[in-house]
Amino acid sequence: LITLYPCDDSDVRVTAPSPLRLEKDSPIYHEGDPAGCWYEVVSGVVRTCRYLANGQRHLTAFYYADDAFGLDLGCYQETAETVTDVLLRRHTTRVNVGTERRPSPGRDDMLEKAWEKARQSIFLFGHKTAANRVAAFILAVSERSEAAGLELLMSRSDIADHLNLTLHTVSRTISELARRKLIALHGRQSVRILDVEGLRIAAGDADRGADRLSPSAPIGCPWPTA
Amino acid sequence: LITLYPCDDSDVRVTAPSPLRLEKDSPIYHEGDPAGCWYEVVSGVVRTCRYLANGQRHLTAFYYADDAFGLDLGCYQETAETVTDVLLRRHTTRVNVGTERRPSPGRDDMLEKAWEKARQSIFLFGHKTAANRVAAFILAVSERSEAAGLELLMSRSDIADHLNLTLHTVSRTISELARRKLIALHGRQSVRILDVEGLRIAAGDADRGADRLSPSAPIGCPWPTA
DNA sequence: CGAACAATTGAATCCTTTCAAAGGGAGTGG
DNA sequence: CCACTCCCTTTGAAAGGATTCAATTGTTCG
Q1: Which residues, listed in sequence order, are joined to residue A94 by a DSSP beta bridge?
Q2: CB atoms within 10 A of CB A78
Q3: Which of A224, B96, B99, B185 has the fewest Cβ atoms within 10 Å of its own Cβ atom?
Q4: What distance in Å separates the CA atoms of residue A142 and residue A151, rounded to the nearest whole number?
Q5: Residue B54, SS3?
Q6: Are A218 and B30 in contact (CB < 8 Å)?
Q7: B218 and A79: CB-CB below 8 Å?
Q8: A73 within 8 A of A93, measured Cβ to Cβ
């Protein structure tokens, strides 16, 4: 098991020279730790989560290649763990500029992306039924995968904690989607989308982009002209 | 009705000289509009939401005094509307620095806060039952209010769209909490918390701070020592 | 090959939604 | 000032889903 101290600045430059290698199910940093650096995924999958007092776990996001996480300035607000074997690039959160230390360059854009990711996560929950959420999740994953096939690298339990469902319901629903010929399963993780449109309908709306053109207009639309 | 164009830079300085006044249920900006400025709440309550294709509305957050919203750089990712009569301070998103335009100072810290707010929103959804969510919501609102009493300035429908429940369930649950003597209602909006501990238990966990000290330790804890 | 773990599936229960109707404030007009 | 209306909220009963409990199947790894 490879371990690392998330805030150990001593051997860290603005960009770590060589990627960090961690194996499946390893801790990266823990909620509450002082935040010394943020990470970019080179390969593999990372999850961030919060452990609640009642024992529940809440998975806030999955991070794939080129995603960044751990951008907090003070303390980390969530725990980060590897889902698969992972290669990470590490950056220090603050760099010396003259006399003061300020957020490192590039972090700003990453923060922007991370925020959008958080919004997507909220968006997933906005879907009412289990079928809605699972279908939306599969579509979201497929956007990060090349070609038609995609791999559900995380466990059913991970998916459940991400969608706020039980792993039973997730399993049932995936089976149901396969039964309806919207997807095809090859083994546990390998999924092939058979009917994208059908999946979007199953997701309860026309996926991303569709929540932009709202048929039910918000208040005050169209805008009053000068 | 006071109207404004969110991206009208012409009359906007780095910080608008006088606060903007808007009345209840007014649009501030719309999802998809190019983002020209971000806002600070001086007084009142603002909501941000996304309108989904299927007609559902999803309330991503409520903003109170000193909260900032609308920090997107490209286009606004969500719609902002007033919940009550509101006073706003407006800032331009980018300012001229030499030849290039870059994010305005102060925006960084605000982005940090906004992100934390988004996380809280996700956190609310992490609660399983209606009682969990409503109790957690009331506790969250109470943290933004002084003293024991608090005002639910938004409608039941707003709360429902925020917690991903129906307004019926929200209403039922609030009544139930009152019946259990955890809160007391004075009129529709005025709430007094009678039993904070009981509310926290009803929320399903010991509220904020408790999700930091996790009794069910995440993987790899405690940290291996060097 | 067997053990341990992950995933699937079934049945009963509980909870939220849905459909329907009644109650209560705020504002308007008589 | 009162009555009336409109809209928000509350509440009831039935229906649909997700969870829970329990058991089986399937995979992976030693």
Answers
A1: A103
A2: 25
A3: B99
A4: 9
A5: coil
A6: yes
A7: yes
A8: yes
Angle at B173 between CA B168 and CA B176, to 5 degrees: 130
DSSP three-state, residue B171: helix
User: B169: part of which helix (H) or strand (E)?
Assistant: helix B167-179
- Across the interface, whether the CB atoms of A26 and B220 are under 8 A apart is answered yes
**Tokens found for residue B32:** 């998809």
Q: Which residues of A touch B77 (CB under 8 A)?
A: 116, 119
- CA of B176: how far to CAs of B131, B180, B183, in Å? 8, 6, 9
Which of A1, A7, A6, A50 has its CA nearest to residue A29?
A6
Residue B66, number of CB atoms within 10 A of its CB: 12
Residue of A nearest to B50 (CA): A211
- What does the DSSP assignment read for B91-148? EESEEEETTEEEEPTTHHHHHHHHHHHHHHHHHHHT--SHHHHHHHHHHHHHHTSSSS
Compute chain B's Rg from CA coordinates.
20
Nearest residue to nucleotide C7, by CA–C1' distance, is A171
> Between β-strands B57-63 and B46-51, what pairing exists: parallel, antiparallel or unpaired?
antiparallel
The C-alpha atoms of residue A185 and residue A149 are separated, in whole angstroms, by 10
3-state secondary structure chain A: CCCCCCCCCCCCCCECCCCEEECCCCEEECCCCECCEEEEEEECCEEEEEECCCCCEEEEEEECCCCEECCCCCECCCEEEECCCEEEEEEECEEEECCEEEECCCHHHHHHHHHHHHHHHHHHHCCCCHHHHHHHHHHHHHHHCCCCEEECCCCHHHHHHHHCCCHHHHHHHHHHHHHCCCEEEECCCEEEECCHHHHHHHCCCCCCCCCCCCCCCCCCCCCCCC
Q: Tens digits of per-residue pLDDT, A26-66?
A: 999 999 999 999 999 999 999 999 988 778 899 999 999 99
Please state the pTM of the whole predicted model. Answer: 0.82
Q: Which amino acid is at B9?
A: D
pLDDT tens sequence across A194-226: 999 999 999 986 544 444 334 445 665 433 332
A-chain CB neighbours of B26 within 8 Å are: 219-220
